[in-house]
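Saturday, quiet lab. Running sequence design on the structure tokens for the scaffold JK sent over.
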């Protein structure tokens, strides 16, 4: 599958996530229903941060989102506080803009070297193509978890 097809799959999954979040109130986005460990808001921000880590990070290319955002929502973190309305707007913007920037960088062929990475699923990403193919799987996993959380609200 080429980069354009993979990016389209990521956009579809990301669009579903954006749609889910926009249907919920800020209180619902920040609710932590038992037995879950993270809120819908954290999961939403996490998929955006992970996209940066698996594409730019594994190429040792500077992120296009603030380091603080990446550090707050990367793998191994958890919900520490509620997301404000202003932060949610920022996350919405990042969710769209990060994919637009990724597309521009794909077209400019900035991704040249890649550092292999083993995911939590035990899948080793050996190439940039592997990372792109993994992103919609990762996002769909978190989207599914959030759909389950929504039923607990």
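Result came back. Writing it out in full:
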């Amino acid at each position: 599958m080429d980069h354009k097809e993979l990016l389209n799959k990521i956009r579809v999954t990301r669009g579903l996530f954006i749609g889910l979040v926009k249907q919920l109130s800020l209180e619902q986005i920040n609710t932590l229903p038992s037995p879950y460990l993270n809120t819908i808001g954290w999961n939403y921000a996490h998929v955006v941060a992970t996209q940066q880590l698996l594409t730019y990070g594994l190429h040792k290319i500077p992120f296009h989102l603030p380091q603080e955002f990446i550090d707050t929502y990367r793998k191994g973190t958890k919900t520490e506080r509620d997301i404000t309305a202003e932060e949610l707007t920022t996350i919405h913007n990042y969710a769209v803009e990060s994919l637009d920037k990724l597309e521009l960088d794909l077209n400019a062929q900035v991704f040249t070297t890649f550092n292999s990475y083993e995911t939590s699923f035990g899948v080793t990403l050996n190439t940039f193509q592997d990372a792109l193919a993994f992103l919609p799987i990762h996002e769909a996993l978190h989207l599914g978890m959030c759909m389950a959380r929504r039923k607990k609200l």
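Notes for JK: The mean pLDDT is 95. The beta strands are 117-118, 124-125. Ask whether to fix the surface positions before the next round.
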